[in-house]
Amino acid sequence: MIATPLFRHLFPALLAMLLCVAPVAAQQPSAVNPTASSVTEKQLLDALKPNSTDTIAGRVSIPDVRAGNLIQPTGVEFRAYQTTTIFQVGAIAIPGMLALLALFYLIRGRVRIQGGPSAQTIVRFAWFSRFVHWMTATSFIALGLSGLNLVFGKTLLLPVIGASAFSAMSQLGKFVHDYVSFAFALGIFLMFVMWVKDNLPALRDIRWIVQFGGMLGFGHPTADRFNAGQKLMFWATILGGGTLAVSGYIMMFRPVSFAISAMQLATVVHGLTGVVLVAIILAHIYIGTVGMEGAFRAMGRGTVDLNWAKEHHSVWVEKVARKRPKDISGGPAPAPAE
Amino acid sequence: MARMKFLCDADRCIECNACVTACKNENDVPWGINRRRVVTINDGKPGERSVSMACMHCTDAPCAAVCPVDCFYTTADAVVLHSKDLCIGCGYCFYACPFGAPQYPKAANFGSRGKMDKCTYCAGGPEADNSPEEFAQYGGNRLAEGKLPLCAEMCSTKALLAGDGQIIAQIYKERVAKRGYGSGAWGWKTAYKEDIAT
Amino acid sequence: MTSFIAAVLAVVAISVGASFLLETQQQTVDKTYATSGTRVDLDPRLSGGVAPKH
Fold it and tell me: What is the mean pLDDT of residues A194-217?
């Protein structure tokens, strides 16, 4: 009962297969011999992958089709990146930046308000701007520390605190890194929306860069709301942070269609961008705190000393005086605008 | 001590998947995790070959090199094992491994993929040999009982060989000499930086 | 100061929220790679019976 209809279907199929395969087999003199005489692994590999970086994949009978990848040669490069490249880049960029900042402090010292503090203040950042700044900043510190731990922790921390403590810490760090990223990405997005119009390049930025913002004593170049240095910092943060977010979410969400080499690339891009951005942000932290008198209160209280503003953002002060004179307070420093 | 290796003779493998089943059963591997799998290349074409692939227990293992918490260790038998207590599930070993051996218990498309799982060469993990704790995390420990991995032991065509690298290489060489052909020891160049001249 | 404290609280809230949200979407491999199982509803031409309704 069962066999007859089956056979009726199978027999023509079998016949067709025999008829097709026989001539094909006869025409295969080149790479692979179907009668299974010598077929070396190398011959097969060369036939399967024209490029040396291609993954050699075949068919598997399990639902996870990605298990069909037999050998992926790019793992060698990923290993070189993970054990050497990222370590060296980080080890040069971060201590290098710290050394540079220390040197700058020794030579230049703290950048003072030349006119001395005035009795007047000017509103620099609204509450929401400061909120977004600190949200991005605190999440970046958490992300930076947990990220650097994955690069340098094995070398620096593991021998000190032992395997199990280090693993527990790294596990926590990984979860922090995954989940805090959302606050960081939101912060980057909001900062872009809030500040992009004040960060577009302007002609006077060239003079600012040539004179290095007057920090080494070549006069005080004019600047609008943000000077060229701040604009560079803004774009480094937006582009660097954006790159980190995109590559990071690729790593985290692992799109099914992404080949393993694409995942490796995302990891490499994420790591290198990360250590470089940490180094850049160190400079930002320096100039916003110890490096310059009167700078921190812009993000602290939201107001800055009028003399400071006139020195660093002369064009902006003129605009504020014209458009929003209420933002400039008269008498002594008012109650914190918080 | 012996230098333990796997060798898959692709000219003998008939893709019966008994090695996969043996591994699953011996080590209580959950559905969806494949410590060993059989990959068929050139499927349905002339020159079709099937290769049973798992962790090859590499010399100078890439997984161990990239692990940020250093959870891998190599036993005296040169078997590459790892500690699930230390693993943080970052996935770097999967990106470094040439053979796609590391597996993770969670697969939805985001970060927390859980502790990595891979072939242990039926040698368990860092816990006491054949203790319930060891079995729960890593599966059986046949090596401690003086037995070889079950996948190779059960192979119906003896395509998959496990054991001391020199001995299985010798067996393979004799086979090739006798039958006159052989596609080579799959993955050996990548894993052990050596090949068997045939 | 209030902006800073609010920012820290926002970071914590967003992170905890994201972790809970993502954790509900997380899936173990046995579910991800589940197959529909063995076919028992054989073609009626083979089994001689009536195909069950899907």
Answer: 87
What is the Cα–Cα distance from A337 to A101, expressed in whole angstroms? 31
Tokens of B5: 């290796």
Distance CA A108, CA B183 (A): 69
Catalogue the E-assigned strands of chain C.
Answer: none
- Residue to substitute from A60, A260, A270, interface B, most B β-carbons within 10 A: A60
Domain boundaries, given as residue ranges, for chain A: 120-327
Superfamily for the A120-327 domain: Transmembrane di-heme cytochromes, Chain C (1.20.950.20)
Q: Is the alpha carbon torsion for A256, A258, A259, A261 positive or negative?
A: negative
Number of residues in chain B: 198
Using the beta-carbon criterion (under 8 Å), do A82 and B40 form an inter-chain contact? no
Q: Give just the sign of the alpha carbon dihedral A55, A61, A67, A70.
A: negative
Alpha-carbon distance of B99 to A100, in angstroms, equals: 44
Torsion-angle region of C28 (φ positive above 0: left; ψ -120 to 50: alpha; else: beta)? beta
pLDDT in tens, B30-74: 888 999 999 998 888 877 889 999 999 999 999 999 999 999 999
- Going by pLDDT thresholds of 50, 70 and 90, the confidence category of residue A25 is very low
> How many Å lie between the alpha carbon of A281 and the closest alpha carbon of chain B?
24
- What is the mean pLDDT of the segment spanning A32-42? 53
Tokens of B141: 């420990």
Dihedral sign, CA of B168, B120, A82, C28? positive
Q: How far is CA A36 from the centre of its chain?
A: 51
Q: List phi, psi (to 5°) of A145.
A: -65, -45
Which DSSP letter does residue B161 get?
E
Q: Give B40-58 as a 3 state SS string.
A: EECCCCCCCEEEEEECCCC
pLDDT tens per residue across span B83-110: 999 999 999 999 999 999 999 998 877 7
Nearest to B58 by CA among B98, B115, B29: B98
CA distance B29 to chain A (A): 14
Band (pLDDT 50/70/90 cuts) for residue B185 is confident
Query: Do the Cβ atoms of A289 and B145 come closer than 8 Å?
Result: no
Chains in touch with C (3+ beta-carbon pairs under 8 Å) read A, B
Which of B152, B198, B107 minimizes the C-alpha distance to A63?
B107
**CA trace torsion B120, B121, B122, B126 (10° rounding):** -40
Most confident of A141-155, A219-233, C30-44: A141-155
The one-letter amino acid code at A131 reads F
Q: Using CA atoms, how far apart are residues A75 and B56, in angstroms rounded to an integer?
A: 15
Residue ranges of domains in chain B, CATH in brackets:
4-192 (3.30.70.20)
Tokens 């173990």 correspond to C28
